[in-house]
């Protein structure tokens, strides 16, 4: 009887060893080693998940598009064909040597710089004539944010874009980076600020862009500025007169619309000069 018990214990011991050996030598399966699975991964900040098309991988893709265009311009999509200046036109390569070194990545960076002026240029506008209010210049208006340096200011670039208006239209001439920046500084960072890129209608944006970027602002002489100042003072005094004469009457102030009266007076002057008898 004791021999039988010792034999049974030995068999159970051998069976346990065999099962342990089978578990350790069998192919890995998530259900068999559930207790030994890896700990859950920690959350990753969104800033590390951001993917920029200006990284090394995308630059390889853009350079591949350039080489494909050089081999056959019809092998790339039509919007990419607007960058035909990158490789240069063989029939006119001698007339435009300044942009021979322009890459697709530089052109995309320049387009981002132009878009930054269109979106945030009004934040740099000189709206305080006395210069009392400090201004914070957005970082995306700095050429260094796009990989450009002072040495690139005299390089020539072409930034024509398919089906765009204003400064980005296809028929724009080749210009240096200094000339491009000077034009956008005058258009968006002068004494008038424009904020229109939030408009969802592309046709309206193109119309405004054409008027803002291509039409030169009028230059007024000293006498003309004195006339405008006199009319601004007149409009302010007229508002003070109404406030003093009818103190108990509800009315709307002129704050923010002081230029409306000089504008209406200018319109009447133009109508009178044109010979109109009634308006």
TrEMBL record:
Primary location group: mitochondrion
Cofactor: thiamine diphosphate; Mg(2+)
Keyword hit for NAD: no
EC number(s) reported in the record: 1.2.4.2
Subcellular location: Mitochondrion matrix
Any one cellular-component term (Gene Ontology): mitochondrial matrix
Keywords of this entry: Magnesium, Metal-binding, Mitochondrion, Oxidoreductase, Thiamine pyrophosphate, Transit peptide
Coiled-coil features, chain-numbered ranges: none
GO BP term, example: tricarboxylic acid cycle
A molecular function (GO) term: oxoglutarate dehydrogenase (succinyl-transferring) activity
EC class (word): oxidoreductase
Record field: catalytic activity: N(6)-[(R)-lipoyl]-L-lysyl-[protein] + 2-oxoglutarate + H(+) = N(6)-[(R)-S(8)-succinyldihydrolipoyl]-L-lysyl-[protein] + CO2
Ranges for domain 2-oxoglutarate dehydrogenase E1 component N-terminal: 51-83
Matching SUPFAM superfamilies: Thiamin diphosphate-binding fold (THDP-binding)
Record-linked PANTHER family: 2-OXOADIPATE DEHYDROGENASE COMPLEX COMPONENT E1 (PTHR23152:SF4), 2-OXOGLUTARATE DEHYDROGENASE (PTHR23152)
Family from the record: Belongs to the alpha-ketoglutarate dehydrogenase family.
Function: The 2-oxoglutarate dehydrogenase complex catalyzes the overall conversion of 2-oxoglutarate to succinyl-CoA and CO(2). It contains multiple copies of three enzymatic components: 2-oxoglutarate dehydrogenase (E1), dihydrolipoamide succinyltransferase (E2) and lipoamide dehydrogenase (E3).
UniProt protein name: 2-oxoglutarate dehydrogenase, mitochondrial
């Amino acid at each position: 009887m004791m021999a039988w018990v010792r034999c049974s214990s030995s068999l159970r011991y051998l069976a346990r060893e065999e099962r342990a050996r089978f578990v350790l030598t069998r192919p890995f399966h998530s259900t068999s080693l559930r207790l030994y699975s890896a700990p859950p991964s920690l959350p990753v900040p969104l800033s590390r998940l951001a993917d920029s098309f200006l990284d090394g991988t995308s630059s390889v893709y853009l350079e591949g598009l350039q080489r494909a265009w050089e081999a056959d311009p019809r092998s790339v999509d039509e919007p990419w064909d607007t960058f035909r200046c990158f490789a240069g036109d063989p029939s006119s390569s001698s007339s435009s040597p300044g942009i021979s070194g322009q890459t697709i990545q530089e052109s995309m960076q320049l387009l981002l710089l132009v878009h930054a002026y269109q979106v945030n240029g009004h934040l740099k506008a000189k709206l305080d004539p006395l210069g009392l209010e400090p201004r914070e210049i957005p970082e995306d208006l700095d050429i260094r944010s796009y990989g450009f340096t002072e040495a690139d200011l005299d390089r020539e670039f072409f930034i024509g874009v398919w089906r765009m208006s204003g400064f980005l239209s296809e028929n724009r001439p080749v210009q240096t980076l200094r000339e491009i920046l000077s034009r956008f500084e005058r258009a968006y960072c002068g004494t008038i600020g424009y904020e229109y890129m939030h408009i969802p209608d592309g046709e309206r944006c193109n119309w405004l862009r054409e008027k803002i970027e291509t039409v030169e602002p009028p230059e007024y002489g000293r006498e003309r500025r004195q006339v405008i100042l006199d009319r601004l003072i007149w409009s302010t005094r007229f508002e003070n007169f109404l406030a003093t004469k009818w103190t108990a009457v509800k009315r709307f102030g002129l704050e923010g619309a002081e230029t409306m009266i000089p504008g209406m007076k200018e319109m009447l002057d133009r109508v009178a000069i044109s010979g109109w008898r009634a308006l």
